[in-house]
Specification:
- This protein has about 475 residues and is an alpha+beta fold.
- Helices cover about 15% and strands about 30% of the residues.
- The protein is built from 6 helices and 24 strands.
- The strands form 6 sheets. Strands 1, 12, 20, 21, 22 and 23 form a 6-stranded mixed beta sheet that branches.
- The termini are far apart.
Length: about 475
């Protein structure tokens, strides 16, 4: 006998339902609404420069400054009298034995930038520091590797006291008739090494979920041969790769390194662009009260000009700093220096208060808002300060002085990735079918992403970073 059913019932008076079941067809929009930007525009979107490497780390040599400069102390001397100078350790370089003539001996020789007969210029200890007030001397004795003596070239000048080591400029040299040559000089280069980092991500769905129809179409609606949700996973991976290359730091915790080594998975972390600039670039600290001012940028120009910076720069800024500069630049023209727009009665009225480019002094800055710095899920999370920060990238290229790329021009900023034997790991995308490939035939589908990459910023002395303090 069948189970009891009530059959028809009196119509409900408080709800005009056809039935007690969900028989109404829902009106669900097919298109999935994207509430947030899925991709953040990283610095790599603004450069198409990249180069492969066949090693887990790569190095470059950058030529140091070729002009010598002294840093020393002195007790001073009377008018026209010879003064004794002690060279600071910053101005000394140890000369070790090295291959192919390495003796294993402890370095016992030091070099310094000063030579006999050098003409030097010293700042006065009091008064205004300007032309006409400097004390000019000639080096007339090299005592040892850490001391030298110099006398004023004017008998009325006195060597001032330099209690705390200060810089002294070498502006030339002078030699007597029939004299011998001065000692030779050598320039040097600094080696910079960056490590490649492995970045991974994956998406997994069951075989069933991959086929079940949804109420809405996802981002793969018009794309064949993609696992459901792969568009989101790919965007996530690109975002993590961009942020790694922006804010990453090298691993210096030996305990962490040892833990990874113990599981036969040695770990290497790469240095991101922002930390590379903070380590070796030009940092502009601006007031959190007044914000970044035009006056700050003029001061910044002086700093980067001393580092032979390029005249055109890409300026990537957070949203708060972007708008602060728009206000600052706009204020310069509020008294009629610029006309924002003339309107006719039949036209929509619109005013563009954004400045995409600014020429400040002899330097040109192409300003772009860095969306990653204001993304609520990442660098723009509550309490993070990236929206108030920005960085500059030289817009030109540098000439390679040696190696396989000798003579070629390379972008000042480029991505490096592992490649060799006809393969590369710049961006690996692997589709995994568990039924076919898993040991136990797991009913899953996966998409796996991997990039073995790093960033190379050349001539970091031409890069800059702005942050509030």
């Amino acid at each position: 006998m069948g189970a009891y059913q009530t059959g028809a019932l009196n119509t409900a008076t408080n709800h005009n339902f056809v039935s007690y079941y969900d028989a109404h067809e829902p009106d669900i929009q097919e298109e999935l609404v994207q509430r947030y930007m899925n991709t953040i525009i990283g610095f790599l979107d603004f450069t198409d420069a990249k180069k492969s490497t066949d090693a887990a780390e790569f190095s470059r040599f950058e030529k140091d400054r070729i002009m010598p400069k002294i840093k020393a102390t002195t007790a001073g001397a009377g008018a026209g009298a010879q003064g004794t100078f002690t060279v600071h350790s910053d101005s000394q370089v140890d000369i070790p034995s090295a291959a192919p003539y390495d003796t294993g001996a402890t370095p016992d020789q030091k070099t310094m930038p000063v030579r006999l007969n050098d003409l030097i210029m010293i700042k006065p200890s009091t008064g205004v520091v300007s032309s006409g007030n400097y004390i000019k001397c000639i080096v007339d004795s090299i005592t040892n590797n850490t001391q030298f003596k110099a006398s004023p070239i004017k008998s009325t000048d006195s060597v001032p006291v330099i209690a705390s080591a200060d810089e002294i400029v070498i502006y030339g040299n002078a030699h007597g008739e029939g004299s011998i040559f001065n000692a030779p000089m050598s320039t040097k280069a600094t080696k910079y090494t960056e490590k490649l980092q492995i970045i991974k991500h994956r998406l997994r769905v069951t075989g069933t979920e991959g086929l079940v129809k949804r109420w809405y179409k996802d981002d793969n609606k018009d794309v064949k041969f993609q696992v459901r949700g792969e568009g989101d996973a790919y965007a996530q991976f690109l975002n993590w790769m961009d942020m790694n290359l922006l804010v990453g730091e090298e691993l210096s915790n030996t305990n962490v390194a040892s833990n990874f080594q113990a599981t036969n998975t040695p770990l290497a972390l790469t240095r991101g662009l922002l930390h590379a600039i903070l380590d070796a670039g030009n940092v502009l600290n601006y007031s959190s009260i007044s914000g970044l001012l035009i006056a700050d940028m003029y001061d910044y120009n002086i700093v980067i000009d001393a580092n032979k910076a390029q005249k055109k720069n890409l300026w990537m800024v957070g949203i708060a700093l972007d708008q602060q500069m728009d206000v600052e630049l706009g204020d310069r023209f509020k008294n009629g220096g610029i006309t924002y727009g003339n309107f006719n009665m039949d036209q929509d009225k619109a005013v563009n208060l954004s400045f995409q480019k600014a020429r400040i002094g002899v330097y040109e800055y192409d300003k772009r808002c860095m969306e990653a710095f204001n993304d609520l899920q990442t660098l723009g999370a509550d309490g993070f300060g990236f929206k108030y920060e920005g960085f500059t990238i030289p817009a030109g290229a540098t000439k390679i002085a040696g190696g396989s790329e000798k003579g070629k021009m390379a972008a000042t900023l480029r991505k490096r990735y592992l490649a060799g034997e006809g393969k590369d790991r710049e961006m690996l995308v692997n589709y995994f079918d568990g039924i076919k490939d898993a040991d136990d035939g797991d009913d899953i589908e996966e998409v796996r992403y991997l990039s073995h990459c790093a960033l190379e910023a050349q001539a970091l002395n031409q890069f800059g970073y702005m942050k509030r303090v």
